[in-house]
Amino acid sequence: GPLSERPLMEVRLGELHTWISTCDFSPQGLLGTVQKAWNSYYAKYINVRRGGPSGISMLLAGYCLLSYSWNYQHLKRYRWRKYH
What we know:
The structure is a single chain. It is built from three helices and no strands. The chain is extended and about 45 Å long. By secondary structure, it is mostly helical. The longest helix is centred in the last third of the chain and has 30 residues, at 54-83. The protein has one domain (3-77). It holds the Pfam family WRW.
């Protein structure tokens, strides 16, 4: 199919620059991309007939890592002030 309709995993390294230039980086395009990614994740890991806890646990693990990274800078600055 056309290069703009291919998923990222099917794009060759030499075609990557051209593929990125065909992407829509407007707020509406980015919102559509996020919605498409969420629907794909939901269909693959959460909304399955014999699903286990893997989809929700991956989501929780991602949230934990993200919240830790947000709070790490705050803790790092606090410790530096306290001991120096």
